[in-house]
Amino acid sequence: MEFYICQTNDAKDLPLPSYMTKFAAGMDLYANVHEVQIIPAGKTKLIPTGIKISMPQDFEAQVRSRSGLALKYGISLLNSPGTIDADYRGEIKLIMINLGENDFKISRGDRIAQMIINKIWRPDFKVVDTLEESERGIGGFGHTGI
Residue 46 in contact with residue 94, Cβ under 8 Å? Predict the structure, then answer.
């Protein structure tokens, strides 16, 4: 199986996505900004990563928040996890949101998110009139308590 990655012309100086530890599931993505970007508290901003990818069909990439940015600064991805389909060929850009109390600064090359590659299963659903019973049934949204 072949996976491909290329950098946009303005991102050749940035590192490629990389795993920061031996058993990391996600690889870090870097900010492809040319001047400091400020995300005001409570606001969103689209931040480019400078990479494009190609995957075999039945795979996807997911982009997710970095836990340290979320905990320390309230920085998250608005549509997390964001899905990158196998047939998308554009630059990966991140919809970042500042849920913190202070403005957040993003500089060129900052590690701003993580990307995970997953296998996709596309089921053939069979239409039925009812579903088999389960112990849980229709319980949801806090049905097991706090």
Answer: yes
